[in-house]
Amino acid sequence: MSGDGRHVLFRAGGERFALPLEAVQQVVTPQPPFARVPRTGDAVRGAMNLRGRVVAVVDLGPLLGLAAQPLRAGQGQVVVLGRDRGGLGLLIEVVLGVEALEAPSRGGDGPLVRGVATVRGSAVTVLDPDALADRSQALFGAP
Q1: What is the domain partition of the chain in residue ranges?
Q2: Nearest-CA neighbor of 92 among 39, 36, 16, 32?
Q3: Torsion angle in degrees (nearest 10) through CA of 37, 38, 40, 41
Q4: In the chain, is it the N or the C terminus that has fewer CB atoms within a 10 Å radius of its CB?
Q5: Number of CB atoms found within 10 A of residue 91's CB
Q6: Which of 5, 36, 31, 30 is nearest to 18 (CA)?
Q7: 123-142 in b/e burial notation, b at 16+ Cβ within 10 A?
Q8: In the structure, what pLDDT confidence band is assigned to residue 86 with cuts at 50, 70 and 90?
Q9: What is the largest CA-CA distance in the chain?
């Protein structure tokens, strides 16, 4: 990842995270109830129709071992990852903005994390969109 890359900053599970801007297709307000997906874990919220396209919705909090996002109409947001990541939406608390970040320092917890960056004096965990997509797809039983 190059330095000074623009990232979408957001909050999920009470923590601050970032994803590279190029990995995010759009951010939408969820309109529950979502279509349920049988035999999936707590992180899977279901599927939603986004202008004729089916988007699988995964709660980012439990995926990262954090608290789940309450699911009520008009609350929270869904970060829809780019089309090359299989129509995946991540349920989060709120988008905080778009910021240019320096390359994150190595470190962080687990394979879903690229590292930690600092934004205006506060630490932000930079996530790996490909690893998130792989982990999420595994929850749906995808190969």
Answers
A1: 5-139
A2: 16
A3: 90
A4: C
A5: 27
A6: 5
A7: ebbbbbbeebbebbbebbee
A8: low
A9: 43
Structural class in CATH, domain 5-139: mainly beta
CA distance 119 to 31: 31
Residue for token pair 């919705």: 57
**Token couple for 92:** 């989060």
SS3 132: helix
Q: How many CB atoms lie within 10 A of CB 5?
A: 18
* Residue 26 confidence class, pLDDT cut points 50, 70, 90: very high
- Name residues whose C-beta falls within 8 Å of residue 1's C-beta, 6 or more positions apart in sequence: 20, 103, 104, 114
Contact partners, residue 80, CB within 8 Å, separation at least 6: 24, 25, 26, 27, 28, 50, 55, 87, 88, 89
What does pTM read for this prediction? 0.87
Question: Tokens for 56?
Answer: 């699988």
pLDDT tens digits for range 105-120: 876 667 899 999 988 8
SS3 134: helix
